[in-house]
Fold each of these.
Amino acid sequence: MAEFVVQSANNMPVQAPLVPDPVVPYSGESITVYALCEVDEATIKKYLAPTPFTSASNQCLIYVNDFSKSKRLPYMDAGIILQIKYRDLKGGYYLFEYEDNDAAIETGRSLWGYPKKYADITLKREGNRVRGLAMRKGKPIIEVECDLSAPVPRFEKMQVFPHLNLQTSPKAEGPGIWKQRVIARDNSMDCRLISEEFGQVKVKLSGLPTDPLDAFTPTRIIGGGYTVVDFLAGEVNGWGKVVADLI
């Protein structure tokens, strides 16, 4: 058995590291089915109330993603992204996010503040039909279906970069927050779009007691599609940047 070498990057515990050390850089083919939707503005404001962010629109992006071909950090991913503002910045805020790899979950939560939880996720394409599904605790919570043979009117895409996250660390000695920061992360300039197709989209969201996704059931679906991207989180743009220390 090879002798273990303690690393000194962003990982813990040092005796049994969970994520690649260091995790950046990582890359791979990123495949996504998504729906751009309008949702109730009062609901958006309610869920942003505990944050320093304000709503930039009544739109959200509901998606399922396949990053399982990455050699360094493979995972399936699904979630809901809001368009928000913080000071003079506008970007995407992951309100709910799910993945199927504990290393990817730990990386996103601890390093950059993504609200990742575990779910079983699949993304399948058969001809012109694509179906993405996220299952949590045996229940389907996110379902996105896209018919690429059905034309849709052109639509303006939602700005999701930079990702603006609320990185929060709890107190060890009792209730409360020990450290809270706003983190910006934008590696979009290092990613290359391989292909994109548009189609008519159907979305179904279901809630759990601690995952109330059904509150964001769309009032209108604007459009959707299917993308394949050559993804890179590199040394320059793959890490997060501290925008503000709140606590």
Amino acid sequence: MTPERIGKIIRRIVYLFRKHPAHRALIALYLSIRWQCLVSPRARVYFPGNLRIGRGARIGEARIWAHGPISIGARVSLGDGAILDSQYPAGSIVIGESTAIGPYSIVYGFGGVRIGRQCLIAGHVMIVGSSHVFERRDIPICQQGSTGQGIIIGDDVWIGAQCVLIDGSSVGTGAIIGAGSVVRYKINDYDVAAGAPAQILHSRPGVMPSRTR
């Protein structure tokens, strides 16, 4: 199929989306063709115009709410049941290439969430880039709004199953977070941390690259 023919098909699909609400299978087909990736026909994608997907990415039966921009890098794997929600009004999510996000993990991007390249994020992980305001007692917490500092995860990070990353936390390049941990603050490059709240156990051993003159 020629590029001109593919472009014509994409323009036709976009026109149909603007005229009528689209079935999720049609949206998945459009995204798969548009970005040269694989999106499950059972995935639920809302506001696909705010979504960018890298070539070769694989999106399972996930739910993606792209109120704000969401960028999924090349060769990313998003497991069944996972949720990406950039959150209104100014949230965003960026996922680097070759990162794998396990089944039923949740990423809320209200304050901005950036996940690096070649990361391993296991199932049932929660990455929450927002927090509720609770200063007042005279009105319910649910009516006081939210704040968002955001979360940054470096490259080559391994986050174990059922971890929670709290708004304002960060995980450095090459770090490892043990299963079931709660990350509240900064984890430095190549640290190994675990617990609730997460505590630094040690740094990863390894051979540093030699310097040549």
Amino acid sequence: MISINGLYATIRTLTRIGKWIALITMTLMMLFITYAVINREFLTPVVGDVEIVQLGMVVLIMFGLAYSQAEDAHVSIGLLVDRFPQRLQHIIDAIAYTFTFAVCLIIGWFTFQAAVNNMVNQRLSTDLLVIPFFPFKFIIAIGFTLWGLEALLKVVQSISALNKDSA
């Protein structure tokens, strides 16, 4: 049986890997866009540059979601909740993170099924470069699943903070 600390370490390691994938993707996109703009001005335009950047954005965003959750960098409105007692704040946080966990896993599961279906039955691809969509759908599924797992860690943290306040 896996311990809470082992689960925590595993999820955080996966999140760090996702963060580095997002950072590398962002760096490659920056270099590629610079190259494409310079080529467009002085030589010949790069064919499919918009498609490549759009697909790179999928990778960047999906692998950045879990890291944003881990760092509490998602947009949240604390105007009302911050005025509640600390115990009630932890309860609301636990409920919100539980919903985030559930929704992310549902989206991840259905996107995974769509990716498998797309890979097996329908070969959808980009218009110009004919890059298949299914690997990016798998990336979307992984991104939402990692985000959900980070939200699960926040549920555990909220519950432990709630128990600490009770003691």
